[in-house]
Amino acid sequence: MPYYQRVGEVPRKRHVRFRRPDGGLYAEELMGEEGFSSDSSLLYHRYAPTAIVKAEAVPALTGGELTPNLPLSPRHFRTQDLGPSEDLVSGRRLLAGNGDVRISYAAADRPSELYRDSMGDECVYVQSGRATFESTYGALEVDEGDYVVIPTGTIHRWVPHGTVTALTIEAAGHIRPPKRYLSQYGQFLEHAPYCERDLRIPSEPLLSDGEDVPVLVRTRGGLTRLTYRNHPFDVVGWDGCLYPYAFNIADFEPIVKRTHAPPPVHQTFEGPGFVICSFCPRPLDFHPEAVPIPYNHHNVDSDEFMFYVGGDYSARAGSGIDVGSISLHPAGFTHGPQPGAVEAVIASGATTTSELAVMIDTFRPLDLGPGALACEDTDYAWTWAR
């Protein structure tokens, strides 16, 4: 993250003696990226964060294998047709992925176990419902429309309040605000569509007691369940520039032009080999001769994965796309408005759009997961020819 935060108790200087009330030393832990050469935070534990008493291999989560998008085709998946999941970690239904990113969907109403993703950052978009996100950094209350960005290696769990539906994005590296939104020192610039005030972080430590506490850990080698001697939620304070945070899509300030603007104006985050964009309610293009919906386009270097989460999609009228739908438009295919949509929007005289969507563009082809194939609308590819 681009700016410094401090929560709870920390000593005046780094790497000095910091004693508990009983006279013992708190255990200092550095959480850092890119081999001590990028963002980091220091966490102060009541107990040693290294004390494990058991390690056991775990079978792969029930996500299934990826298969190539062959024959090459535009796809439509209806997540609203997927059944309930176990929780927001083990219940993820794999939709698509490649070597850079895995995208899944879950609809869960029970707490997850403690979990650590040591392969990369995660970004979880809460489509509906409320939950408490608990971690070694503290707790965050999250709600509909929140992106929750979780740094690599953060021990955390999800506690839903009722049923929560969410899109989960697991990166093979780090997820950050786009560089063009930041100064050379990491401050959000004035042209950025959101800023530091829009981000929410844990405001106080989260302290839990317990012994022999299991934590599911995902690594490049597979899954392991480590049992910690003491509960890992024992951090009395932390400071630094690396931490989980929430950002609500309603706080994204759309950038508009007189004629139609391309998707990079909607970019919200970037990861290794992919970007995340937020399409939000906004004024439509206002040139007197503007065509106020997207032109046909062919992104020759990327696959476009679009999750429709709210509002009205006039450009897709007649395609079957609705709230909860996902469209996948792969490189090698030209896509655009449905037949008749352009003239219909011009005739309507509409000046605003209520569409709300989360888009992930990848720069390597997306393969398909069993979750997507289980809810596919197989007629979608032919809707432009009707």
Please specify the SSE layout and strand pairing.
Blueprint: E1 5-8, E2 27-32, E3 40-45, E4 52-58, E5 75-78, E6 93-97, E7 101-108, E8 115-117, E9 122-135, E10 138-142, E11 146-150, E12 156-171, E13 199-200, E14 211-219, E15 222-230, E16 235-240, E17 245-248, E18 267-271, E19 274-279, E20 282-283, E21 303-310, E22 325-329, H1 341-348, E23 352-353, E24 356-362, E25 367-368, H2 370-373
Question: What do you see in this structure?
Answer:
The protein is mostly beta strands and 386 residues long. It folds into two domains: 218 residues, Jelly Rolls (Sandwich); 132 residues, Jelly Rolls, CATH 2.60.120.10. Helices cover 3% and strands 39% of the residues. Strands 6, 7, 9, 10, 11, 12, 13, 17 and 25 form a nine-stranded antiparallel sheet that branches. A six-stranded antiparallel sheet has the order 5-22-21-24-19-18, with no helix packed on it.
Calculate Rg over CA atoms: 22 Å
CATH level 4 superfamily of the largest domain: Jelly Rolls
| The CATH architecture of the largest domain | Sandwich
Number of domains: 2
Strand percentage lies at: 35-45%
Globally, the shape reads globular
Binding site for homogentisate: 313, 335
Domain Homogentisate 1,2-dioxygenase N-terminal: 74-248
Cofactor: Fe cation
Family: Belongs to the homogentisate dioxygenase family.
For this entry, give a set of tags.
Jelly Rolls; RmlC_Cupin_sf; 386 residues; metal ion binding; Homogentisate 1,2-dioxygenase; mainly beta; metal-binding; six-stranded antiparallel beta sheet
